[in-house]
């Protein structure tokens, strides 16, 4: 159970930077549809739980240190090639978005030059990636409980200080900019781009666990926690729609309304989320080309990290618009492939399971 919770916590820590960093993502994909956005959150929770379980189990089954083996396993040589290319491209793209976002956050919260903020994030990411993958998983998982506590504080505050009726909140919510034509498409697009971003590292995390049930349970736990965060943040913003309507970073606005100290805690959480996502994305991107125990791995981390820093100068807003919108639709191809692979119900034992059984036979 402990190992499953670690994988689940790391899954959440990996995704939150890309999907929760400002609250604006939840606003556009859920809250902007009013009360129906709550149903969208429930759909997203179920989808995250299933896909998290399936991807982690596939990683465990194939005992892979890169997403490549799993992607070709579920997609075959042709579809697998396309999915592999898309995922690898998005890994780098999301990490670059996090570098640019860190620069913007440091500037907005603390008045630090955006370039310096990005340099701090790049340096922290490179240093972390010099650790082994199990240490990375443990490190990424640490921020999840902290984030949950901050979100619960904001939610409780929103419930007890709601100044408008549900009808008024619903009407105001539907005037906000939406990322999709309706709440169902919004929920599915949200899951799609987050899974496209997080699939590779979740597969790698699953590959560190030999027991497929433990890995699958961890992926499911992570999906349920992500769903809980979506619903909680959505409710908090819906109840305080009069305060967050039109605000770029709604969760930070709510935190600042409680107390400046809570605002600082939220700012730290935002940077922590971006850091988690940057670490996960760059690790998964690098191991796609270089094995983690190869002597070229560490130099590759530094070179790729510096390349990401250079790419971050395109700008946070531009990167979010270009990378995320593309990921949302193309990510459906990955989701369909994962569902088909799961429906095959391939019960052949993994390499790890064969080894364990052989060892047991020798002992007898």
What's the structural blueprint in terms of helices and strands?
Layout: H1 2-20, H2 24-29, H3 36-62, H4 68-110, H5 114-128, H6 133-160, H7 166-173, H8 183-207, H9 212-239, H10 241-244, H11 250-258, H12 260-287, H13 297-311, H14 316-343, H15 351-363
Helix pairs in contact: 1-6, 1-8, 1-9, 1-12, 3-8, 3-9, 4-5, 4-8, 4-12, 4-14, 5-12, 5-13, 6-9, 6-11, 6-12, 8-9, 8-12, 8-14, 11-12, 12-13
What does this entry look like structurally?
The chain crosses the membrane at residues 33-56, 77-100, 112-132, 139-160, 180-204, 216-238, 258-285, 297-320, 326-343. This is Membrane protein. Keywords: Membrane, Transmembrane, Transmembrane helix. With 364 residues, the chain is mainly α. The chain has one domain (2-359): Amino acid/polyamine transporter I. The protein contains 15 helices and no strands. α3 runs parallel beside α8 (183-207). The protein starts with a helix and ends with a helix. 52% of the residues are buried.
Key descriptive features of the protein:
transmembrane, 364 residues, Membrane protein, single chain, mainly alpha, globular, transmembrane helix, Amino acid/polyamine transporter I
């Amino acid at each position: 159970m402990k190992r499953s919770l670690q994988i689940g916590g790391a899954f959440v820590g990996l995704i939150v930077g890309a999907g929760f960093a400002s609250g604006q993502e939840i606003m556009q994909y859920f809250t902007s549809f009013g009360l129906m956005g709550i149903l969208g959150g429930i759909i997203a929770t179920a989808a995250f739980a299933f896909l998290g379980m399936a991807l982690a189990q596939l990683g465990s089954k194939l005992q892979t240190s890169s997403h490549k083996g799993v992607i070709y396993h579920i997609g075959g040589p042709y579809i697998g090639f396309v999915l592999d290319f898309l995922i690898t491209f998005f890994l780098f793209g999301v990490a670059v978005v996090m570098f640019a976002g860190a620069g913007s956050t440091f500037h907005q919260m603390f008045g630090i030059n955006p370039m310096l903020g990005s340099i701090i994030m790049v340096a922290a990411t490179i240093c972390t990636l010099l650790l082994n993958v199990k240490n990375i998983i443990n490190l990424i998982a640490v921020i999840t409980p902290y984030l949950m506590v901050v979100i619960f504080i904001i939610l409780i505050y929103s419930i007890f200080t709601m100044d408008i009726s549900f009808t008024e909140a619903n009407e105001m919510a539907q005037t906000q900019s939406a990322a999709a034509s309706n709440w169902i498409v919004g929920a599915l697009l949200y899951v799609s781009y987050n899974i496209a971003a997080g699939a590779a590292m979740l597969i790698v995390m699953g590959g560190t666990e030999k027991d497929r049930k433990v890995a699958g349970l961890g992926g499911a736990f992570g999906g349920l926690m992500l769903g809980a965060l979506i619903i909680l943040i959505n409710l908090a913003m819906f109840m305080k729609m009069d305060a967050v309507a039109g605000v770029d970073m709604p969760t930070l606005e709510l935190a600042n309304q409680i107390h400046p100290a809570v605002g600082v805690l939220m700012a730290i959480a935002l940077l922590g989320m971006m850091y988690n996502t940057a670490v996960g994305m760059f690790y998964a991107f690098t191991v796609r080309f270089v094995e983690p125990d190869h002597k070229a791995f560490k130099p590759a981390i530094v070179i790729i990290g510096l390349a990401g820093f250079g790419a971050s100068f395109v700008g946070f807003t531009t990167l979010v618009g270009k990378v995320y919108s593309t990921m949302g639709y193309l990510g459906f191809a990955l989701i369909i492939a994962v569902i088909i692979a799961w429906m095959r119900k391939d019960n052949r034992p993994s390499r790890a399971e064969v080894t364990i059984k052989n060892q047991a036979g020798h002992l007898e």
